[in-house]
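Now read the record:
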Amino acid sequence: MTDVISTVLREKLHKRYGAAAPATDGIGNQTLEVLLRHRTVRRFLPGDIGEAELAVIIAAAQSASTSANFQFTSVVVVDDPTLRTRLAELAGGQQLINDAAFFLVWLADWSRNIHLARAGGHAIEATEYLDSALSSVIDVTLSAQNAAIAAESLGYGITFVGALRNSIDAVIEALDLPEHTFPVYGLAIGLPDPTDPADIKPRYGQSVVVHRNTYTPPTAADLTDYLDRINTYYREQELPEDWVKNRLAGRISTKESLHGRQGIRKTFNRQGFPLK
């Protein structure tokens, strides 16, 4: 079994890194196979996920590391069709929000801890600083990633939906969120459509992202290697293949490329996060 899994891992690693994929050398288990086969699923088949499975997926999320055991994560399970349609519109018309078996909105949530502190007669001055908001967002991300892995281990497909932040104030209103909460992203979970062409997407080589003791800028060859691999991927997906022009530059060139997110600090402030 280990040899079979090791062979599967080699195939997944080659899709991630191309010729520079690390050798498996007999390394392999089912957890690694789930992690390395991850792909974004944007087409879902009709079908439900049981409430028991959802509860276990959320238990996996709650089992993630959490800063000082503050447990900053809350999750809104959106199963009202009208509300789903509204969120799909706010996220740029993403039909997958309607099609997924479950759509979860992950919140950075200071509200209950602030309530407990105030009820005990304690001040909450430290919650006004940027690090407190950052800690809650980190907590949410660890939890949501655990949920994604749990769902994929059960055979489901997932897509994170950051585009909810394009219309963040409207999302807050639609979900009737209280002060000291902030929606970070959505997570669609469902039965993957086998006709969805999305595959394992190439990543930067480890020579680019791994540094020993001090930061080392990537070489031109390392960057060219990645651009060749990611552009090939998009060409095979029949999508515009110039990753730098069509994706990277398209997201960072102007503030308008943030699609409404450039005002997100004001939303944090209105939700009770001064971000000092």
Observations:
- The chain has a mean pLDDT of 94.
- Strands lie at 44-45, 73-78, 102-109, 157-161, 181-192.
